[in-house]
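Reopening closed ticket. The problem is back. First fold of the pair:
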Amino acid sequence: MDPAARDRLLELNRRFYATVAEPFHATRQGWTAGKVKLLDYAPARRPLRVADIGCGNARFAVMLDSLAAPVFYTGVDAAPELLALARSHTAALAHVNVELVQADLADSGWIAGLGEPPPRFDMVVCLATLQHLPGYPLRAEVMRSLAELLADDGVLAVSAWQFLSSERLAAKQIAWSAAGLSPADVEEGDALLPWKQGAFAIRYVHQIDEDEMRRLAADAGLAVRSIYRADGKEGNLNLYALLSRPAP
């Protein structure tokens, strides 16, 4: 993908979250079946060290609090509006110690914001986030950074929206001209989708299917432990992958 097209799409999504942070937060309260299942993969050690990359309103921290055991949680997001909502959303948690960091995954040095050298975590989650990074090289770069954060025996959970697998969602796509682009500027699986709840905005999204998820894992030197689908009206609108460092 041409760098100018990539930067245009990244800026589109930055504006998207600045515009719809409040209504987006309001729709991200429930515990979906796919995310609840992730709690079964959380390592048993305590305190548990968790990094939530692309944390949004830190919903996963609230879910971790249900384990009723000590957790050190680091949430990372680019949008200051969402991080402000995450602070209020997690203020009353009983068992989770929350640290929030503003960092843009599209910036190559984002991981340095977590410390030098970067800390290692027992569990790293990156949910519905890689799908908003245009171009395979950028997604692969971020996946390698996620692998760098993983403890030797830790688990990385990545999810991606399977919107093109749903006729209902695929029909909502908007013409590329709305972003000043053409189909020739983007990759297969890319789309523009509208948001119409409380405000109108457009965001870029890419469908990471199972083949691409496995390729991203392999390029980051990670092994696939499990893949499953869950969530949405159809019960299969999110693809979840559980990854780890290969056995020695």
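Second fold of the pair, where the issue appears:
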Amino acid sequence: MASFLKKFKNFFAQPSSYQADNFIRIAVKCKRCGEEISVGLRKTSDFSRVYEDDEAPSGSSFMIRKEILGSKCNNLIYLTIFFDESFRIISKEIEGGEFL
């Protein structure tokens, strides 16, 4: 019985791949209702690699395009962010909101 409870407890635990350094947090504010939204971007799956043929700022290695919907209104916030190899922001654009 104790073995079953241990497995059950581990089922709800954070996965071993979860690490704080695996995420980048972006905070935005909706222009329509003013809701502040925090978004976690997972480095291992949310980012796209930038290639030489892509129209991207010089020095960018990764990019993300994200649509964010808050809980207070139906306004979509559109993000486009370019990062270098160390995941430092090179350029960022937002529609429907503002960065915090």
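Update: turned out to be a display glitch only; the data is intact. The mean pLDDT is 84. Strands lie at 23-30, 36-42, 48-49, 62-69, 76-83, 89-95, 97-99. Please close again.
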